[in-house]
Design goal:
Elements lengths: L4 H19 L9 H28 L15 H11 L30
Length: 116
C-alpha cells in the first residue's frame, strides 16, 4: 500500500496527538504502576504506527521496506523525514500498487488488511 505526503503528515500529527496528553502538565510526569502500563502501550502503538506509515510512504517512493531501518538511525532520520514529507511519490504504478489518486483514511490505519 502506498500513501501520499499529506496522508503521511496527517499520520504524524495524529501520532503526536495520541502522546501529547501524557506530557502536557505543569508538573513532572510521574506515573503509577497501572498508568505506566498505559504509557508503555501508547508508546508501543506510536512506534508501530510510525513504522507502518514510513513503510507505506517509502513504497510510494518505490523504495524497499528495508529502508525503514535507515529512517531510525540518528542524524539520518532528519534526511528521511525531509524525503518522506517533501519528495513527491512516483506517478506510475510500482511494485506496491497504483499511484495514490485521492485521500483515503484507510491508508493511515495501521491495522488495515492491505499488504504493506
Amino acid at each position: 500500500m502506498r500513501i501520499s505526503r499529506s496522508e503521511f503528515l496527517l499520520g504524524q500529527v495524529l501520532g503526536i496527538l495520541i502522546l501529547l496528553p501524557m506530557f502536557v502538565s505543569d508538573r513532572e510526569p510521574t506515573f503509577t504502576d497501572s498508568q505506566s502500563v498505559w504509557v508503555v502501550a501508547a508508546f508501543t502503538f506510536y512506534i508501530y504506527w510510525q513504522v507502518i506509515l514510513t513503510i507505506r510512504r517509502l513504497h510510494d517512493l518505490n523504495k524497499s521496506t528495508w529502508h525503514v531501518i535507515l529512517a531510525f538511525l540518528p542524524l539520518i532520520t532528519y534526511y528521511y523525514t525531509f524525503i518522506l514529507l517533501f519528495i513527491r511519490g512516483k506517478d506510475a504504478p510500482n511494485s506496491w500498487g497504483n499511484k495514490v489518486e485521492h485521500f483515503d483514511w484507510r491508508a493511515i490505519n495501521p491495522f488495515s488488511s492491505d499488504r504493506l
